[in-house]
């Protein structure tokens, strides 16, 4: 990735913390040229069965080890700088982005509770990853009380807050391990914690505070509301609150310790934390209102700026300045996309066709509708528009003639239908969508991209970078370092996009209209109260798993 370096060139580093790994990217400030990158896989990955010490985890848990994040600083950043072939002394800033809501309890100095020796065997002391969905009952309690009290912030989140977010996870912590809750002086997004590690200063960013922390109009949910949930929860906001920074702001200077980890100069600018999907809008030059960015990877996050405040049923949230200053930033999402396709290849596709490449080759040869299937894309629950992580996947129309490529194509299509539902919900609420821009690893799948264009009946633009979040973070680093006056100017100079890379075929689009109508019917029946069988099955599964994990002499009725 080497490029010609000029004598006056300056550089920034963007670090993207994903679900399974972290990536560092070295970018030239003047034009956004990507000069070197490196990836470091998390040693512990997603901890969803048992803690490293052997403590078993219940169903729907997903944890991580914060030391894996520090290792990204130690390994990926120096490797990216070496790959770029630059003098580290000419790096002027660093910025990070993170999956969200990924949150951890810490001591007052930022020490994760899972690193306190006597607490290491306690599951609630660890990082709760975004796809930790065991807090769904707690989200249900929060939503029910908020509706009962007509809390004004609820409609800013489409009428429901998610089990993935800070308050649901915090309430679960209080309910299930009050001692850990008391130990947690701070309950902090990993996006802010990693910045704390880099510059030694605790800050909170406006993005995660708004979208994941229910901060609206300058305040969090009231102490009275929280006490009504549980008297012990009344002071929860004290664990969240901190110096709040806009996106692109300088959080502090790189400490000597972090300079030692990364090989970067001590004292350079460290930008405020941010979310992987949200920084990508800047990388794709999609900050203008109406340009919806779908960041497609293991899951998909949809973000778009609007000029006016609107309430979109089922959205993840709307936050003033949440994407960029001067606009209302909207977020929606799908909890499972690439994860669904990976599940099929890893666990359901037979030998001989157990690769994405072979399945795509076979599926691409089919006319629209030839497989006779409709799938619901809820393998990891539904983030938008139903905000219910107890929902599960479904494939309808299977026969003895069904082949693996049929199912695979139906799964690809199901995620496109889910995105169309989100686009139509935005438009119906008065948030116009003028362009669909796709970023993330799944842009490399031409069949999937064409399906999305045909299903939505819209041209698709593609981000002009394979490292969208890392490039977006680098753009914010340049602003924090003072190289650009604001994120809009930095995005225009350093971002890139390939306009209208895919165009819909009119015939296929018409055929998908009929299939989409069937998807909507199933979506509403199973997701909006027609039949709650998915939730009942999940409850049966969880009870069976808990019984099997209990000591043999424990009576079943006690466990149940």
From TrEMBL:
InterPro entries: ATPase_NBD (IPR043129), Carb_kinase_FGGY (IPR000577), Carb_kinase_FGGY_CS (IPR018483), FGGY_C (IPR018485), Ribulokinase (IPR005929). Keywords: Arabinose catabolism, ATP-binding, Carbohydrate metabolism, Kinase, Nucleotide-binding, Transferase. It catalyses: L-ribulose + ATP = L-ribulose 5-phosphate + ADP + H(+). GO terms for biological process: L-arabinose catabolic process to D-xylulose 5-phosphate. PROSITE patterns: FGGY_KINASES_2. It comes from the Bacteria. Its EC number is 2.7.1.16. One of its GO terms (molecular function) is ribulokinase activity. Pfam families: FGGY_C (PF02782). GO terms for cellular component: cytoplasm. Residues 293-481 form the Carbohydrate kinase FGGY C-terminal domain. Pathway: Carbohydrate degradation; L-arabinose degradation via L-ribulose; D-xylulose 5-phosphate from L-arabinose (bacterial route): step 2/3. Belongs to the ribulokinase family. NCBIfam families: L-ribulokinase, PRK04123.1. This is Ribulokinase.
């Amino acid at each position: 990735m080497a490029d010609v370096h000029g004598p006056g060139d300056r550089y920034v580093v963007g670090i993207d913390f994903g679900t399974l790994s972290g990536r560092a990217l070295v970018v030239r400030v003047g034009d956004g040229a990507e000069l070197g990158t490196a990836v470091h896989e998390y040693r512990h990955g997603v901890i969803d069965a048992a803690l490293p010490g052997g403590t078993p985890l219940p169903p729907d848990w997903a944890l991580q080890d914060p030391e894996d994040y520090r290792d990204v600083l130690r390994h990926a950043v120096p490797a990216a700088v070496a790959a770029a072939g630059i003098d580290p002394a000419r790096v002027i800033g660093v910025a990070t982005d993170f999956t969200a809501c990924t949150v951890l309890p810490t001591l007052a100095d930022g020490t994760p509770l899972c690193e306190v020796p006597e607490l290491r065997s306690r599951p609630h002391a660890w990082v709760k990853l975004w796809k930790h969905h065991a807090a769904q009952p707690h989200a249900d309690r929060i939503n029910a009380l908020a509706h009962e009290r007509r809390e004004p912030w609820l409609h800013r989140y489409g009428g429901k807050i998610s089990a993935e977010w800070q308050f649901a996870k915090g309430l679960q912590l209080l309910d299930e391990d009050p001692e850990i809750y008391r130990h947690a002086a701070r309950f902090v997004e990993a996006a802010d914690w990693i910045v704390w590690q880099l510059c030694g200063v605790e800050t909170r960013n406006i993005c995660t505070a708004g979208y994941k922390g229910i901060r609206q109009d300058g305040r969090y949910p009231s102490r009275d509301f929280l006490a009504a949930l549980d008297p012990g929860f009344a002071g929860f906001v004290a664990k969240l609150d901190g110096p709040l920074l806009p996106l692109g702001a300088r959080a502090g200077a790189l400490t000597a310790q972090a300079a030692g980890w990364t090989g970067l100069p001590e004292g350079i600018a460290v930008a405020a934390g941010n979310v992987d999907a949200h920084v990508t809008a800047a990388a794709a030059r999609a900050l203008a209102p109406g340009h919806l960015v779908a960041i497609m990877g293991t899951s998909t996050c949809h973000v778009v700026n609007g000029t006016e405040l609107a309430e979109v049923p089922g959205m993840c949230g709307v936050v003033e300045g949440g994407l960029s200053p001067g606009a209302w930033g909207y977020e929606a999402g799908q909890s499972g996309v690439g994860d669904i396709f990976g599940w099929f290849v890893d666990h359901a596709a037979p030998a001989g066709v157990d690769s994405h490449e072979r399945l795509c080759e076979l599926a691409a040869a089919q006319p629209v509708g030839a497989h006779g299937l409709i799938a619901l894309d809820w393998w990891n629950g539904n983030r938008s528009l139903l905000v219910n992580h107890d929902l599960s996947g479904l494939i309808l129309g299977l026969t003895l003639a069904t082949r693996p490529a049929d199912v695979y194509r139906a799964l690809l299509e199901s995620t496109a239908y889910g995105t169309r539902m989100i686009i139509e919900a935005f438009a119906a609420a008065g948030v116009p969508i003028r362009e669909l821009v796709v970023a993330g690893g799944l842009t490399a799948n031409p069949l999937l991209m064409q399906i999305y264009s045909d299903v939505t009946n819209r041209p698709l633009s593609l981000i002009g970078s394979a490292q969208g979040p890392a490039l977006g973070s680098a753009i914010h680093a340049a602003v924090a370092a003072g190289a650009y006056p604001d994120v809009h100017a930095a995005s225009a100079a350093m971002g890139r996009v390939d306009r209208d890379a895919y165009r819909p075929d009119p015939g296929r689009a018409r055929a998908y209209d009929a299939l989409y109508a069937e998807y909507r019917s199933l979506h509403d029946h199973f997701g909006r109260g027609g039949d709650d069988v998915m939730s009942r099955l999940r409850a049966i599964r969880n009870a069976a798993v808990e019984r099997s994990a209990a000591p043999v002499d424990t009576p079943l009725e006690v466990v149940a």
